[in-house]
Structures are given as C-alpha cells and as structure tokens.
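WARN no homologs supplied; continuing
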Amino acid sequence: MWTRNPSDITDEEYKSFYQSLTKDFGEPLTHTHFSAEGEVEFKSILYIPKEAPDDLYQDYYKKQSNLKLYVRRVMITDEFDELLPRYLGFIKGVVDSDSLPLNVSREMLQQNKVLKVIGKKMTRKALAMIKSMADADKKEDADDDETESTYEDEKSDEGDEKAEDESEEESKYTKFWKAFGKYIKMGLIEDAANRTRLAKLLRYSTSKSGDKEIGLEEYVVNMKEDQKNIYYISGEDKESLLKSPSVEKLLSKDIEIIFMTDSVDEYTVQHLTEFEGKRLINASREGLKLEEGDVEKKREDQYKEMFKPLLDFAKDTLGKKVEKVAISKHLVQSPVVVLSADYGWTAQMEKVMKSQAFADQSKFEFMKSKRMFEINPRHPMIIELNSRIKDSKADEATKDMVVSLYLSAVVAAGYQLMPEDAQDFSERVSRMVIAGLGIEADAELAPELEVASDAEEEEDDDDSGEESEDEDAESSKDEL
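OK structure emitted
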C-alpha cells in the first residue's frame, strides 16, 4: 500500500491498513504518507493512535517495536527502534527503502549511515505531522467566532454534519496532547536539534486560558506591550497555584501566568530557558523581574529603611533557616512569602526528588535551594510587628509570631516541613492560641471526671427502685 499514490487511497483503506498493521480495533488519530528522494530513497506510512496504551509511560525506556522495516518490499525486522527517537516511540507504521541491502544484519543496520539519514528525515516528517494537527486546532479556534453564527443559522442536515466534523477536527490535538503530551516534553529534554520545533507543540493552562490549554506562541502573541518575559509557576494543581502569594503582583498587573502542574515540567524548563527571545521566569523564585521605574526603586529603598528593625529581627530569629529577609516584589495582599533562590531546587522539584524510590538523601542539602523570606510592607500585621520591635517591645510572643509566619509561608509555598520544624510550628501555634484566649501559659490541667463503678451504679439503681415503690404506695393512700 505504501508504494501507491496517496491521492488514490481512501481514508477507509488507511484505517483498514492501520488495523491490520497494529492489531488495533480502533482508528488512528491521524497519519502521514510520504516518499523521500535524493541520496536516500524510501517510502513510509506513519500513524498516531487515538489513545495511549495503559502501560505507555511505564515502558518509556524499553525497546519499542512499532515500526516495520522493509527493504524493496521485503520485511527485514519489526524490532528495530533506531528509526525514530524514543520520545516518538508511540508512532506506528512502515518504512520501505531501496537504498539498503537485502542481506543486511541487525548489527550492520545499527552502523549503516543510510539508516541514520532515514531516521532524521522520518523524525522531521513525524514532527511535521504533529505540528499540522496543532496548526489546524489553532486555526479552528481562531475561526470559531466567525463560523459560530453560521452554524447556528444552518438548520439543514448537511450543515449539521459539517459542524460536527469541524468540532471533531478542533479536538484532535487536544486528544493527542492528553495521550502523548509527556512524550513531547521528554523529547524537548532529549532532542536538542529539534527543541525549537518541540517547544511549539507544548500546551499549558494559564491564568487567562480558562479550561483551555494554550501554546507558548499564543502566550507571546497575548503578551502586554511592556512585558519582556514569560512567567510561569510549577506546583500540584492550577487552583492552588492561582492562590499562591508568589503570583499576587503578576495578577495585579494583569500579566498572564503559565501553570506547570506535571512533574516532568520541572525538567523541561531546565532545557527551555527562552522562547522566541523571551526568557522563562519562575514566579516562585526571588527577584521578580518586572519593569520598574525610578519611583518604584526609591519607594523600595524607603521601605528597606523603615522596616530595617523587623528585617534584622527576623533574620536573627530565623537564623540559618533563611538565606535572606527582604521587602517583597511579589506580594499585594498576603503578609509574607517564602521563595526559592535563583539556583537550586524549587518547592515542586524538592517534592519530585523526594518521591523517587532510589533517591540519594545525602544530595538534598546540597541541591536544596536557599529560602528567601519576604515581607509585605503595606500589610497591617507587618506594620504592627515592626512598631513593636522598633519600640523595644519585642518578646517571646513576637518571636513566636515571626517564626509562625515563616513556617506558614513555607507550607503555602509548597515546601514540606522538616519533622523538627513541624513540631516547632505546632508548639508555637499552641502558645499563640493560649495567649489569645487569655489563658496562663503554666495553667494546670483540669481534674479528671469521677466515674462511678458498676457495683455503685447497681446499688443506686436498687435504691431508686425502692424509692419509687414507696412513692407509689404513698400516692395510693392519698387517692383512697
């Protein structure tokens, strides 16, 4: 079938061939049929399945056998996985080349230069097939507003069928991303040569995208005129990230934020530092890079001078727990925030590394990012704390407040408390609750309740029975 002209083959024939080739009862999501000419000649049909197998991500590093290699219409092997890179291992199909010898062995195949050329061209074609799905999805989204009214006005059966087909086409790339998105992210890590192509295939939820996921190209198009960077934050889910203190300033300035909620995203952004000349900035790290004028810088200097007592007191109280205490560029409503340093693991990365089965605990202290404690100079709580310390009214309760604020910010930032910090946090909160209720710190426990024994309860029951009989007799006499 791959030797025929693609224009002479129907969709039903492609579907039937896919089912016989893969033993899959379903139909493919999409396919590409192409011929390569020049120094190396080969023909190929590649398919992308509609659904991912259940064990797809468990078998990522195992050998894939989804491609059948033919030489002059004679099948050579279906266990050769060097034709496509590992991150495209979900693609199924056939490859037929006239440039390879028929009597080739597996060992010779691995060192054959012709095969490397075929592999490069097939990778480009496979990525082009995926990109065409993404472009079609994006085009349909752009035309959606124009065509929506047309679909509403058309009441004929033909119009309804067309609308149905368009709706199915719109969801193609969404289906692909849900099934194989992690593979594309792994490709961005492994394939430096095609990193730019793969970056355009990424999809993420953002603070403005609603339920839809958008690509980095669309994010750049939607950027504000004075915005120079792409801002993102990583964590467990979109809802918790949207409430994170780290993004308050960005949201207040109406800047779109990308939410990365997949564990592999932490590795992906390490290899994707910029896109189309725009740097990717993690909002949960120190030193939020926003455009600041002379007025903002003067205001920050004044805040540093005003709140120097609290900054120094917090640094002395927290000691080695924090690298630095500073005036925050992230906060609007929250009193404090804990951020990661520019280098080292973020809170999400720490979780990912600690969850590894064979994680090396000795490396945690080395790779763990230093934590930055930042305060909001406009918050009433911070202003009152600074006044207490400035007027030399700081006591143990003030220390408890500062440490408790820090530990609560650690939890809010997504970090996991160390066992000793968790115990310390619990004790300090208890002390503050006791003080708030007006209870003495050294108040004694209330005495235990006195509970009667079973024998005493039986005696009480007998006594009550006799008393009731006497009362009945008295009442009878009264009636007579």
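Residues 147-169 have pLDDT under 50 and may be disordered.
OK
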